[in-house]
């Protein structure tokens, strides 16, 4: 170890210097600023600048408080559901939280850079546990740092920091609300089971355009459409469970796994929600009738009840019972007979029950 890394005053021999090496000429030699006794190399901040910085930090902490409170208010005010409402909620939550964290970070940065004193820091490294002298030195340094931070001395800063942190501390608690309530039986049902006004069955409409579909118009074998329930075209919660894929087969192509009583002129509807972990499964290979889920490559045979032929999914895509209304449009005769999407522990053996009744 070289001589320049030794501390003759303290009698301790440092193993290594961390950070910028000490300047060739000690700062004290050419810096006229008063150095407090007992604190080597400390350069106190200009008191005028400190007062100015204090006001700036307090202002930033107040912004943090207001943005944090606005985050909680936005969580209550902006309800998710439709695409527009969900987007507004995301913008409000993201914007307010970002502003709160930015202003908090800026406030702490100004505090450290313009209020706390500056000095050269030399840190020692030891291969083994530190001795008693060193631990005492660390303790003193920590207490010195706490004193220099001015947390006790600057009452305005201390209070505005605590004020700023309060809403941010509460924010995670507010988000806990999303863990409940328990879903009850809602995972077993979709909106396909709800009739329209006047008791009419619910039509299938094309995703994106909202066009209802006549069985006679969907007449090209090998065709596929992404379909949603009429009246719920923008309801993301409903669509997360109710979106369908509609496929057209020649009658001779449909195998025994598909419930033919639920088809109309070779048109079959399956849930688009993969039974593995819920990705949209809609990559379709016309020649093999395979539906592929892009997430983990589960593959379903659309001509044979969408049974699993490859991949981690454990059960077929549920089939929706199709009907036709008096105007020739495709409608849902009822809800799915089994829950859609990933399996869950209260599901029981719903598929076996359906197979027994079929
Ligand atoms: S979510 Fe479809 S294979 Fe995993």
Please characterize this protein's 3D structure:
The chain has a four-stranded antiparallel β-sheet with strand order 1-2-3-4. A four-stranded antiparallel β-sheet has the order 5-6-7-8, with no helix packed on it. Residues 1-11, 13-17 and 27-35 have low confidence and may be disordered. The protein has 358 residues and is of the alpha+beta class. Helix 2 (47-77) packs antiparallel against helix 3 (83-114) and helix 2 (47-77) packs parallel to helix 5. It is elongated and about 90 Å long. Strand 9 (322-324) and strand 10 form a beta hairpin. The protein has seven helices and ten strands. The structure holds FE2/S2 (inorganic) cluster (FES). The site of FE2/S2 (inorganic) cluster has 13 residues, from loops.
Compact summary:
The protein is of the alpha+beta class and 358 residues long.
Spell out the key features of this protein:
disordered N terminus; 358 residues; four-stranded antiparallel beta sheet; binds FE2/S2 (inorganic) cluster; 34% helix; 11% strand; alpha+beta
């Amino acid at each position: 170890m070289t001589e320049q890394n030794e501390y003759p005053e303290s009698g301790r021999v440092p193993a290594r210097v961390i950070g910028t090496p000490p300047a060739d000429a000690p700062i004290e030699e050419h810096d006229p600023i008063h150095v407090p006794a007992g604190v080597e190399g400390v350069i106190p901040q200009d008191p005028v600048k400190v007062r100015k910085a204090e006001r700036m930090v307090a202002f930033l902490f107040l912004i943090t408080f207001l943005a944090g409170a606005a985050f909680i208010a936005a969580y209550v005010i902006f309800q998710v559901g439709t695409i527009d409402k969900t987007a507004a909620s995301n913008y409000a939550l993201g914007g307010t939280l970002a502003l709160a964290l930015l202003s908090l970070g800026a406030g702490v940065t100004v505090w450290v850079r313009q209020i706390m004193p500056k000095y050269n820091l030399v840190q020692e490294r030891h291969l083994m546990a530190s001795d008693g002298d060193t631990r005492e030195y660390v303790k003193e340094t920590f207490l010195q740092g706490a004193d220099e931070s001015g947390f006790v001395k600057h009452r305005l800063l201390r209070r505005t920091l605590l004020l700023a942190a309060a809403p941010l501390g509460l924010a995670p608690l507010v988000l806990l609300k999303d863990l409940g309530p328990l879903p009850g039986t809602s995972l077993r049902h979709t909106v396909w089971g709800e009739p329209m006004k006047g008791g009419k069955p619910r039509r299938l409409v094309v995703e994106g355009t909202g066009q209802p579909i006549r069985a006679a118009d969907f007449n090209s074998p090998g065709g596929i459409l992404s379909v949603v329930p009429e009246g719920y075209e923008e309801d993301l919660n409903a669509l997360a469970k109710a979106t369908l894929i509609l496929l057209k087969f020649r009658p001779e192509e449909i195998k025994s796994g598909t419930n033919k009583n639920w088809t109309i002129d070779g048109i079959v509807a399956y849930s688009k929600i993969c039974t593995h972990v819920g990705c949209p499964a809609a990559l379709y290979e016309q020649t093999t009738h395979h539906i592929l889920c892009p997430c983990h490559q589960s593959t379903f045979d659309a001509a044979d009840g969408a049974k699993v032929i490859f991949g981690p999914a454990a059960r077929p895509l549920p089939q929706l019972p199709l009907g036709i209304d008096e105007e020739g449009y495709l409608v849902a005769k009822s809800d799915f007979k089994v829950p859609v999407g990933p399996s869950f522990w209260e599901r029981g053996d719903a598929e076996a029950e359906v197979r027994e009744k079929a």
